[in-house]
Design brief:
about 230 residues, Uracil-DNA Glycosylase, subunit E, 6-stranded mixed sheet, globular
Length: about 230
């Protein structure tokens, strides 16, 4: 696909995601968080809208999370940006050569991804990080359109079971897809789905997910993406 129309379509999709108000519970929550703010960010302007995907439009690697964090992407407007989960993810991307720097603090911090795109099945911050099945389903057309535009993707890293299940469903798992850290599942069209524990604090603070574990998944993704 010619990158110019693809970029235009991704930009249009990003605008639609940002302005979407299809899920009343999520809209109320994201806007409440943006209004009340966390004390540490009381002087900042919160994004408080749907969060589009981010990265290289010609990516061969797709990273699938769950949803924006209330004081992370819901604040900054960029996936996995401005929170500790993002700290872990972007350091791993940088070590694997998919990012030009190991930190992601704001949309204007100079971060660029090379060969990678980050997205999520749900685009608004959900209360307690738990979207309902209906909210997931109403958001799914955005992800379907995004995946249709990202035609160079050959490998997907799903962070957590939620993203793993959605990736397997939308990209056509060949056989039964069962989530575990390091799981490798073939997808339709010769793509591969890799599972990783989510980079949430409940995993990183407890040692369930370590940086060497995450690096191993990204090393395998790099191997598959250039193979």
């Amino acid at each position: 696909m010619d990158p110019t129309p693809r970029l235009r379509q991704l930009d249009l999709l990003a605008d639609e995601i940002a302005s979407c108000r299809a899920c009343p519970r999520l809209v109320e929550w994201r806007e409440q968080v943006a209004h009340d703010k966390r004390a540490a960010y009381r002087d900042e302007h919160y994004w408080g809208r749907g969060v589009p995907g981010f990265g290289d439009p010609e990516a061969r690697l797709l990273i699938m999370g769950l949803a924006p964090a209330a004081h992370g992407a819901n604040r900054t407007g960029r996936m996995f940006t401005g929170d500790r989960s993002g700290d872990w993810l972007y350091r791993a991307l940088w070590r694997a050569g998919f990012a030009n720097q190991p930190v992601s603090t704001s949309v204007d911090d100079g971060l660029e991804l090379n060969g990678a795109w980050i997205t999520a099945p749900v685009r608004c911050a959900p209360p307690q990080n738990k979207p309902t099945p209906g909210e997931r389903d109403r958001c799914r057309p955005f992800l379907e359109r995004e995946l249709a535009l990202l035609t160079d993707i050959v490998v997907v890293i799903a962070l957590g079971a939620f993203g793993f299940t959605e990736a397997a469903r939308l990209l056509g798992a060949n056989g039964r897809a069962r989530f575990s850290h390091g799981a490798e599942t073939p997808l339709a069209g010769g793509r591969t789905l890799l599972g990783s524990y989510h980079v949430s604090q409940q995993n990183t603070f407890t040692g369930r997910l370590t940086e060497p574990m995450l690096d191993a998944v990204f090393a395998r993704a790099k191997e598959l993406s250039v193979g």
